[in-house]
Amino acid sequence: MIQLTNVSKVVTSGSEQLTILHSLDLEIPQGQFVSIIGPSGSGKSTLLGLIAGLDAPTSGSVLLDGRDITKMTEDELAEHRGKLIGFIFQSFHLIPSLTAYENILIPMEIMGRDHASRRAQELLDEVGLHDRGHHYPSQLSGGEQQRVAIARAFANDPQILLADEPTGNLDTKNGSHIFDLLLKLNRERGTTLVLVTHDQQLAGMADRKISLSDGRIVEDFTKV
């Protein structure tokens, strides 16, 4: 499902070349729950961005569902990503001028999905926000905003869900609830889940744990 071959990321910082990710190979099969851990600056978010096609690698190829996204045009990439990937950001990235319901609805309307209105309400119900759909992000708590972000990420039934520190800005109770939602959706729908986290306890619940340090994979452990 996800295949990275000889992927690296180098950026220019002043007059120097800074290697964010050294050349790496990585395969993640359909339905697997993978956690990516490591200290700040180790390349976790960069790796997630490359998988999502939000950033381009300096070298190598990124295949999603057998197609190399590094060779796609912007339009092709946007269409492929819209059909295949859901992305959950630490800072939610909800549109402030839209209600919770509208934030979930818009991605489905863009993709021309049938019965989008009904599906948006079903997703609100699924994340426990049945009566909060008419509220704007500023009227929601952090945990509620993150639940809206999760519902939006699942709006087009993605085969791959990428989550960058989704519980990082939440208290323990809300963070635990959000994680339970992600785990439930992974287990019940067979969605591939790639989770970047600093939380060792959450990381340990994954099927597979990948540790990064200084832009290199230093551990890749899969539960038996």
Structure description:
By secondary structure, this protein is an alpha/beta fold. The protein has one domain (29-58, 71-222): 3-Layer(aba) Sandwich (Rossmann fold). It is 34% helix and 29% strand. The chain contains 7 helices and 10 strands. A hairpin with a 2-residue loop joins strand 1 (2-13) and strand 2 (16-28). It is globular.
List the helices and strands and how they pair.
Layout: E1 2-13, E2 16-28, E3 33-37, H1 44-52, E4 59-64, E5 67-68, H2 74-84, E6 85-88, H3 100-110, H4 116-126, H5 142-153, E7 160-164, H6 172-189, E8 192-196, H7 200-203, E9 208-213, E10 216-222
Parallel strand pairs: 3-8, 3-9, 6-7, 7-8
Antiparallel strand pairs: 1-2, 1-4, 4-5, 9-10
In short:
This protein has about 220 residues and is α/β, with parallel strands linked by helices.
Rg, rounded, reads 17 Å
- Strand runs, count: 10
Strand content: 25-35%
| CATH arch. level architecture | 3-Layer(aba) Sandwich
- Unreliable stretches: none
CATH uppermost class: Alpha Beta
Span between termini? 20 Å
* Main sheet strand line-up: 6-7-8-3-9-10
What does the largest sheet look like?
Answer: 6 strands, mixed
Number of domains: 1
SSE string: EEEHEEHEHHHEHEHEE
CATH superfamily: P-loop containing nucleotide triphosphate hydrolases
Q: Helicity, in percent?
A: 25-40%
Mean residue pLDDT: 90
Taken from the alpha-carbon principal axes, the silhouette is globular
